[in-house]
């Protein structure tokens, strides 16, 4: 707790300065909270990229196994080998489960700055109430700072996602990720069992 208190004390002056950019208190609050959310999103996304690079070999292995077994199940179905299809399909589903939960875990890792941001806001705005236009069941006629933080965070997250590919650090990461998957096996679909379509008749 002493370490957290020292961290909060160290960043307090920097963070609160954004809340004082406007002489209108409510406007300053939304500006400051917007900047705080942007910092959380930025640090979280940088963490995501770092973890992904560090664990790329494992993610790539799970992804390739999933696609390979899926393709084998499609080919077995095309060969009318029901036993092989069930076996390959089961292994493909198991590989998908591993890959899905790994991606979910790395996605959640990008949210780690949020609790620290809320902890700092707790020290500053715990006694601040925001009046609601109409009373809401379970909330009453006013809400606390967390009720405002999460909508702003979601909005900033969405907007940041639209410009992320234009920022040097994230654009280079995306280029690297695409290049690392360029030689991966392509996933087949059931439509591939029909084979290539015959060219239509030409009209002279």
Automatic annotation (TrEMBL):
Keywords: Membrane, Transmembrane, Transmembrane helix. The chain crosses the membrane at residues 27-51, 99-118, 138-160. This is Uncharacterized protein. It comes from Desulfosarcina ovata subsp. ovata.
């Amino acid at each position: 707790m002493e370490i957290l208190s020292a961290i909060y004390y160290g960043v307090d002056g920097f963070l609160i300065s954004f809340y004082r950019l406007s002489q209108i208190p409510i406007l300053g609050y939304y500006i400051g909270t917007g900047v705080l959310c942007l910092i959380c999103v930025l640090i979280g996304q940088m963490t995501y990229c770092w973890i992904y690079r560090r664990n790329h070999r494992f993610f790539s292995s799970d992804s390739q196994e999933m696609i390979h077994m899926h393709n084998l199940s499609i080919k077995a179905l095309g060969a009318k080998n029901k036993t092989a299809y069930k076996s390959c399909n089961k292994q493909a589903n198991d590989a998908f489960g591993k890959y899905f939960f790994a991606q979910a875990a790395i996605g959640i890792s990008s949210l780690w700055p949020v609790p620290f941001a809320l902890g700092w806001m707790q020290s500053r705005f715990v006694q601040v109430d925001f009046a609601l236009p109409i009373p809401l069941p379970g909330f009453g006629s006013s809400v606390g700072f967390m009720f405002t933080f999460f909508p702003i965070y979601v909005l900033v997250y969405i907007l940041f996602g639209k410009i992320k590919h234009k920022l040097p650090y994230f654009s280079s990461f995306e280029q690297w990720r695409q290049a690392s998957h360029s030689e991966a096996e392509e996933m087949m679909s059931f439509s591939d069992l029909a084979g290539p379509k015959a060219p239509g008749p030409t009209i002279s």
